[in-house]
Design goal:
The protein is α+β, with helices and mostly antiparallel strands. It contains five helices and eight strands. The termini are far apart.
Length: 189
């Protein structure tokens, strides 16, 4: 029997019909990277699966961004949480605060995001719900209308997902970790 727990929300949480998107603060990131998932779980208020540490690059990147850009904090990594079970099922993060120099050759006043839904929770439309929520938040709270996503040409599920949101290809990049990625843009109404 699964116990349904009430999860307290925080002012900076982004709430969707099925999810809580909660900022992963510096202390939580450092606890994860130091192998202290139990400490990180208590701080986050949700169980953090070991899968998070299979690809810790998002946390490392977010920590660097936080150290270099004080305006990055609300754009940093967010845990995708199922509130009924207090389970982290993935994460989403923006790569920078708005209008980074590296995107200006494509578009100004944009943000780029990346996301991951862990395998056990894929194909349940959690990524769709998450992307819609963060783009709506960025638009309403910060006036952002241009969104960029870089996707491997072999990542068919992500290509299909961003196509549903109306992203169109604007370029190609070589990522030092992931290899070739297609760059996509969506301009919100």
């Amino acid at each position: 029997m699964i116990r349904h727990l009430t999860m307290t929300t925080l002012p900076e949480d982004i709430i969707t019909p099925r999810l809580i998107l909660r900022l992963i603060n510096k202390d939580i990131m450092e606890a994860c990277l130091n192998g202290k998932l139990d400490v990180a779980t208590r701080e986050l208020g949700a169980a953090i699966p070991a899968e998070l540490m299979e690809h810790p690059g998002s946390l490392i990147y977010s920590l660097r961004q936080l150290a270099n850009d004080p305006l990055y904090a609300p754009w940093s990594a967010r845990a995708i949480i199922l509130p009924e079970t207090r389970q982290m099922i993935g994460l989403i993060r923006f790569h920078s605060s708005p209008n980074p120099e590296y995107l200006q050759r494509y578009v100004r006043d944009a943000v780029e995001f990346g996301y991951e839904v862990f395998p056990a929770w894929q194909r349940q439309h959690y990524a769709t719900e998450t992307l819609e929520a963060v783009m709506t938040w960025a638009q309403r709270a910060h006036g952002i209308h241009h969104f960029v996503a870089s996707v491997s040409p072999e990542n068919t599920p992500s290509l299909q997902l961003i196509a549903r949101f109306g992203f169109h290809k604007i370029g190609e990049e070589i990522d030092e970790t992931d290899g070739i990625e297609y760059v996509f843009l969506r301009t919100a109404d």
